[in-house]
Amino acid sequence: MSKDEQRQVRRTLREYSREFDEQDREREENVDREVVENRRMLYREWYAWVEREQEEVNMEREEMGLPDPEEELALQGTKSADQGEEDKVVEEVVDEVIEETEEFA
Question: Which range among 36-40, 59-63, 69-73 shows the weakest confidence by mean pLDDT?
Fold first, then answer.
């Protein structure tokens, strides 16, 4: 090939490269969008299921005559605040020996 033909080939390769790079970016963006949309759909489905299950649990609790645990906690919080009790923090530290070796000098 002559030098002019080689230059022409290089120019067209650069142009094609730009076009293909742009197409690749568009495909990646579409794939990313699809992944995000799929995750959003799964997220909505999950929270819809959780909500349905929570409603079912609440209905069963009412049928059995059991108190609502959230209301019970709220009542306990107001009772302790009324009594003037201070919150206590209990910290428990547990040490566990994994391996013990003796070194000789």
Answer: 69-73
